[in-house]
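Example 3.2
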Amino acid sequence: MFLGINLKYLRKLRGLKQDEMQAHTGITRATWSNYELSISQPDLETLSKISKFFGVSIDTLITEDISKNVHLIKKDAQHDKGQNVHLNVHPSVHLNAQNEPNSAENLVQIPITDISVAAGTGQYNSSHVENVDIIRLPVHFLKRNHSYLCVRIKGPSMAPTLQDGGYVIIRLLDRAEWAKMPDERVFVISDLEGKAYLKRVKNRFKQGFIVLKSDSLDQANHPSFNLHASEINTIWEVEWYFTAKMPNIHDQYYSRLQQLEDRVDDLSSHLLKIEPKLK
């Protein structure tokens, strides 16, 4: 049973002290300490609160050593390493009152990971993910008491809005926020199979599902599809996007227009050839 080990690990991953857990879960410092030391065990209702707060299932909390999938890497002198993260657990940056940015620069470090989110049919990622770099943002660009991650875009289905090879900074949504997700916003969805999708979303949670849409004009190759609530593991809202490619929102439009003009020219040429035969 790994409950005590996991509670201590997840608390430290969030940068929280034992006496801060009461504000988030209603559990006092003394009681939380007993849980971590395995002196006592939480009841099912309390365990459910802990599970929702950390975004980890009750079964995982009890039966798996989470640190073997996602472990904390101490920052080195160059500050280019952070915590290992995964879309199906929780990222390393969680802003709270005790996790202040560098006071001199007022910046927050967000890990850039080797996770890819597919603007297409879904991208599988390893359960063990390394940080490859960091990006710094002003603290007022981010929402306090939320978890953030920076991931790479893979695939063309969200072009020209979001370019293949670009990066998005994403914020983890609590399950209580799912029903209130605004329509037509861009989200990263991870499912229970381990796939991660980058899509524009129609919220149909009242009917038990969401619709995932591409921005590509090529809907034949990038059709919309539904994902049932029971298939979803985590949802992340895209808050920031950056790329080295200069976006051209007219690129696909003009490409298709040129293709249409070429077809018209071919048709005109063909008509000119058969016109003498019709006389």
